């Protein structure tokens, strides 16, 4: 039987829910990711991580939910195709999803997130803490130490939006053909202190000087580097799930 809820009939879903599966909810955004990555990059990355994580957790019963495609996405708002929610809407959307899962007997749901905007992560942390009904919500923020230190130097620097970190992950995913490799190889490094600028209140990527909506070094990306990153992300999530579920 498929692990993806979207592929199941309601009777198959009912059978799976009776096994008390861990629900994996892929979360991303629709936002600009440079001139070489698709707007849907964060969703693709979360879906890939869910699939890899489900295999790593076997034989634990798992169901992969349809992705949450929209999120708080203000920094890239000036670039065509970016779609943003308010924090209130984003939190209510997630809460309603959780309530539906609870009605079907799901006891644990993990928020598998690849969109790293601080206001969005705040929503995930708040809803994970504030939702007191069933299911129990599991979320880990890999942007924080010590988890961030297990990932690439670019990721740790913060200048990683559509840089070698995300581009390498995409190159090692089943959506690798969507990476515009010829364009990627021509892009110069963009190291503008993304995190520092955010803390100083600079409101958009454009205002930071990232006129092509990317930071970091996409040109040095590789599938080999992406595989190393995927392995680390799966390990981080396995540890988080084990800590919550035993």
Structural summary, described in words:
The chain is an alpha/beta fold. The protein has a single domain (about 5-245), classed as 3-Layer(aba) Sandwich (Rossmann fold). About 45% of the residues lie in helices and about 5% in strands. Helix 4 (about 120-130) links the parallel strand 3 and strand 4. The longest helix is centred in the C-terminal third of the chain and has 23 residues, at about 225-245.
- H/E element string? HEHEHEHEHHHHHH
Q: Output the radius of gyration.
A: 18 Å
Alpha-beta content class: alpha/beta
Fill in the CATH topology: Rossmann fold
Backbone shape: globular
Mean pLDDT, rounded to whole units?
96
Question: Which helices and strands appear, and what pairs or packs with what?
Answer:
Elements: H1 10-17, E1 22-27, H2 41-57, E2 62-64, H3 87-103, E3 108-113, H4 118-130, E4 136-138, H5 153-157, H6 164-171, H7 181-184, H8 194-199, H9 205-208, H10 223-245
Parallel strand pairs: 1-2, 1-3, 3-4
Helix pairs in contact: 2-10, 3-4, 6-10
